[in-house]
Please model this.
Amino acid sequence: MKSDFLVIGGGIVGLSIAMELKKRLSDVKIVILEKEKSCGMHASGRNSGVLHAGFYYAADSLKARFTADGNRLMTRFCEDHGLPVRKCGKLVVAQDESDLPWLDELLNRARENGVALEDILQDEAEEIEPRVRTFRRALYSPSTSCVDPGAVMKKMVQQAVSAGVILRTGVRCLRATGGNVVETGEGYYQTDFLVNAAGLYADKIAADCGFSRDYRILPFKGLYLYADRPDASLRTNIYPVPDLRNPFLGVHFTVTAGGRTKIGPTAIPAFWREQYGGLENFNVYEIADIVMRQAGLLAFSNFDFKRLAWEELRKYSKGHLADLACGLVKNFEWDHFRQWGPPGIRAQLLNIRDRKLEMDFVIEGDDKSLHVLNAVSPAFTCAFPFAAYVCDRILQVATICKK
Model:
């Protein structure tokens, strides 16, 4: 099949880019290849569903640039299409005195990013959520909300197809070859411009095209523990103060769009890219490569990977995960939290030259292809403005756009 644009990956990022391209260039032929039977089977459909506000991120980052607008646009999308949105906000709580300076840092970032964030006292936090536990102060984010990722993905697929985007599901990309030809399990696809939004396999496809020389995907497994009783539900999301040296936000309480409360996620190092459970999707070749990367980080990294890995692996224990959550709420009854939810895998980008985890979105490309290498949280929140940014870059360089 020949196309003007070929998008590899039918997740939130791939769909958003395809829809944005179609909106700007209505007469072009756009094809999306998705290896699963339906879209959103990986990170896009397995994420927490939280629409972030945008106060965690350094002001010079792409995440800071897109999160607030993404929150607003995704909220409007859900409301326009009758999809559930739970506007429950978020509390960021201090667990001891050492957390207080980090609350101030988050306030500074919120001001720099133009994001509403309230500095409140303990009793004010308890008015928002009576069971919250915090040390002296907390931060309240009124614009944080929760949506149903599966419902969002379903509606986006419907819109993309209605707009004329050609969606090929169940088509696995085997490799990209010269001349923008992609080999798949059902034959070859040729395109004028290739968009790589393949998530967990984005680095491999980019390498086929001569990119991602300094980067490899390092997968981390996210587990959630769900409450099995409605009376265990909270009014708002409750997060600890994060360690801003790494891209994970720590174990927290999330209220789903449907009103259920869950604890998580973890960030457990995975040994192959789609290690959702047991030996599912077992890949011995990926194990060898990923374990080698992890071993390198244990010996040399610009952060304490050994401590991070140990702390995360312990979270396979429901009891340990519940113990961590106890510090965020009072009168916590962990017996209510016994049901594991569907796990997710974070396609975290590792800089193999600097031995660090990339904190921001990373894109590489030329006049024939563009590769989204790091689109981790809050990529779901940022999807629409991020897609517009990507399309701006494509239209500036793509040969097809200059004909």
